[in-house]
Amino acid sequence: MTSRSSERNFARRMDLTSLQLFVAVCELGSIGRAAEREFIAASAVSKRLSDLEATLGTALLYRHTRGVGLTPAGESLLHHARSVLFSLEKMQGELSEYADGVRGHVRVHASISAIVQFLPEDLGAFIRTHPEVKIDLEEHLSTEVVRAVAEGAADLGICNTGSNVGELQTMPYRTDKLVLIVPKAHALCAQAAIHFEASLDFDQVGLHSNSSIYIAMQQAAAAVGRSIKLRIHVTGLDAMCRMIHNGLGLGVMPQRAFELMHGVGELESIELLDDWATRRINLVARDFSTLPVTARLVVAHLTAEQDT
What's the whole-model pTM score? Predict the structure, then answer.
């Protein structure tokens, strides 16, 4: 059998539905949860995965009582499966240009700062103009957003990227300003603006240790030979405000996010004079020019909305 013939037979044996289910199981870590999300019986998912392993001649998953894990072969297949499905969605999006109206869906991963401050209004305005487009929005840390775009798990990322984007492309979306949040009547309230260093004498309430804000705080403290007196980590900005209100420390968050949540405790914001406190939130994609038409519409809308 020739190599080309062998490749053709392999392609015929591959089943796209099985690939989609495999990716769902990997993302959720459970056959049962994947079955619920895809509206299919768990036994049917398990059968398709077994058939997929038989087709490939290798085990793809480690099955255990708490869910599933990926074998080395499974990790390789996940990378390629996402690439295949991404290409198919891009093809579907571009072909939809020939249909009446634009249809399709766009997978967006974004940081908490982008979601809290800007995306509800911006994406809401987009959906009112394009009600036939579905947007799947997931919140992740900035590093995870960049990774999802690189791996094809998201069409578009929205986050504070820094310089760690590799070969991905970025476009400016919005600018945000970080401020120090303190309880009312705190000693620092007498100052309208301070450098972050001035807060290091006090306990801090920090976001996730891998969040872009907390990493920036750590770097700023290290630059002056100090360390952060971290009292507690939280996963959300509303939780941070409640912790600060109850005397567990000070915190850093985007100014607009604090203004939108005003009333969560008796708190004040103080301007940070550090250069790193002014941040650029970017759009991230593998290649903006080759995005599906629906994703390009979202990008055009968001870039038109920037800094308005």
Answer: 0.66
